[in-house]
Amino acid sequence: NIHSSVYVNAPAGLIFPGDSQYTVGNAPHASSYATFVPRVGLAWDPKGDGRMTIRAAYGMFTDRRPFHTYTIFTQSAPWGNNVQLSNVRLSNPWGNYPGGNPFPLIVGKETPFPTFANYGTHPFDLSPSYMNQWNLSIQRQLGADLLLTANYVGNNMIHLPAGVQLNPAVFLGLNPCTINSVNYPVCSTTVNTNQRRRLYLQNPQQGQYYSGISELDNGGTGTYHGLLLAVQKRLSHGVSALVNYTWSHCISDSYDLALTGAINVDNRRALRSNCQTGDTRHVFNLSTVLQMPRFSSRELRLIASDWQLSPIIQARSAQFFSVTQGVDTALTGQATQTPNQVMANPYPKERTINNWISRSAFATPLLGTYGNMGLFNMKGPNVFQFDLALSRTFPIAEAKTLQLRAEAFNVLNHANFNNPVSTLNSGTFGQIQKAGDPRIMQVAFKVVF
Questions:
Q1: Coil, strand or helix at 136
Q2: Predicted confidence band at 71 (pLDDT cuts at 50, 70, 90)?
C-alpha cells in the first residue's frame, strides 16, 4: 500500500526517484565500489634460448550494464507506455479502455496512469556482472620462420543479466470460473491474460494497473572453454602463412538484455543451453601470401616477377538457433516459449534449404505447460568462404609505387545461408532464410598509388 509522492496517481507499489523509499538517488540501482578484481600473469622460457615460451594468466573483469538495459524505463509509465489490448474494434479501439485514449502523454505530478501497463525494474542491490578468465599458452619456434602455438582459454561469467517476469498470468485451468465478478466460460485463455496476472488476482483494484513487470535478474552464469591452435610461417622463399583452428563450447543461462522476461517464471534453469552468441564449435582460418620470385631473365622479370597471390579461407561450423512456438500455450503471457521435442533426431534424412528441420519432430505442449526444449540447441548451416587477391606493385619513382590489384570474394560460388525459419506456427517453418543471392561471386579491381 505504498504510494508515490512524485506521481500521485501512480498505483500502489510503484516508486520513483524522489520518493523516500527510493534509496539510490537517481540511479536504477546502487553503485558498487568494493569489488576486488585481481589479475596475475606468468611468462616462462624453459630453456632460456628464446625459442619456447609458456604463459599462464588469470584475471577478473567487471562489466557495466549496457545502455540497452536502461531503455526499458523510457517505455514505462508515466514517461512512455506500451498498452496491449485484445479483442478491440478498429473503428473505436479505445472504446472499452478506462478514460479513453491515453495519448498523447503529458507528464507531470498528476499524470494519470494507464491500466494494464508494462513496467521494468532493477533491484537496488544489483551485483555487477564479472568474468573470471584464465589461459595457458605454449609457443615453440621451429627453424628460423615457423611458430607453433597452442592456447587453452577458459572463463566463467557471474551475474549474467536476464529478464524475469514478476507478474505473469496464472493458469487457472480450462473450466468455467469467475474473476472479480466476471464470468468466463473457459477460465484460462489469451483473452483474460491480464485478469489472471498475480497482482490482479491479489488485488483487482490496484492490480488492474499492471500488465507485465520485467525485472533485471543477474543471477545467471555462463562458462566458455576453448582450444586454439595456430601455425605461423614468416615470409621466406616467397611464402608466408597463418593457419589457426578453434575448438570451443559455451553454455549459459538465457541472456536477455531487453528484459522481455521470456524465462520460465518458475524455473530459470529450464532454458540453460548453448550461449546465444559466441558458441561456434569449430572455426578454421587460413591466410597466405605466395610471392613470385624475381626472375633473372629480363622478359620473365617484366611479365612474371613481383606478383602476389593471397588466398583466404574461412570455415565455421553450424550456427545455433532456437525453435519457438509463436503462441502462448502456457497461458502466462510470456513470449519465446519453446515446444516439446518428440523425436530424437529433429533433422530430415536429406536437409535442403526448404526442409532443414522436421516439423514432425516437435509438438505443441498441453495448455498451461511449457515445452521441454531449451534455447539455441538446433544447428543451422555451416559457413565456408574462399577469397582470393592477386596484386603487383610497380616502382614508378623514389618512394612512389603503383599497385594493380584484383580481388575475388567467394571464388567457389559457395552458398552461405542464414538459419531457417524456426517459429513452429509459421507457414515457412524449416525453410532457410535467404538474404539476396547467397551465391554471387564478387570481383573488384583496384589501382593504388
A1: strand
A2: confident
